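Treating backbone geometry as a discrete language has practical consequences that deserve illustration. Part of our work consisted of pairing the sequence of a single chain with a tokenised description of its backbone. We regard such an encoding as a compact summary of how the chain folds. The amino acid sequence and the backbone structure tokens for this protein are reproduced below.
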Amino acid sequence: MSNYTLIKPLLITASACFFLTACGGSNSSNTSTPSTMPEPNVQPPNVEPLPQPVEDKVAPGGLYLGYYQESFTLNPEDPTPGIVYLNIPQADGLFNGSMSFTYVGCQSEGIGNITGTKVNTQLNGEWLGRVDGRPQNGDYQLTYDVETQSYIGTYNVAAGKQHVVIQECIEYWIAPEGEVRLFPLNTLYVQGEDNGSVSGVNISNNIIGWGVAPDAELTVVSVISLEAAEQNLQSAMVWQELLPAEINSITLPVAVSSVLVGGQRYAISVTSVSQDSVVYSSNIEFIAN
């Protein structure tokens, strides 16, 4: 636990910037008869300088890793999470990222390319890609939340809700919209106040383990190449798989472990969802053997 930044959950609200203002006093005239007595030597009060407006602050940058989650209300059939990362600049500017749509081996690989612009605490942009051969695209808007140190927002799918059937492979729905949340590396988020007993993700001898959050029903496990992600390469997405929530460990498939380059940096991301919310998300950086 000590290697993680523990995020305390809160209700998702839009961030706001506040400005301090101050008003001056008023003048009055003395209409009484002038006195011939000398005026006392009165010193003016010690007045503190007026506060200056607080300017918008630029949110932090770096590689942020997290999840997108399909809307539970608009896609009750199979609301599914997936991995997403953004390579965010420290200052305002343009950035790139990726999201993965592939969950089982019989699917065609689906990686979405993300572009966007950072302005102060806001991230706005577009995503596009192919989901099992079907072109898809949409917009997203994220805001940096200081308390949880994460970017939180929503995305949409321009084509709306869709039913996809891949014969002898998989059948699913694409939700018309959903939520996105991104964390810095080595972060543990667990929904609820009593979350101290839930552990973060870890890896040892190619075995990935993670904590089981209350009410979790579905988990997505992912591996990305940090070096490729920092270079904005689509090959950063190494692997993603869906698992039932009762499973809390998995051995990296040989097809995955065999492509990891010894000495290079990677990250594992695990997100678990209940029937109506994301209850767990953790990521950790590791060096491949």
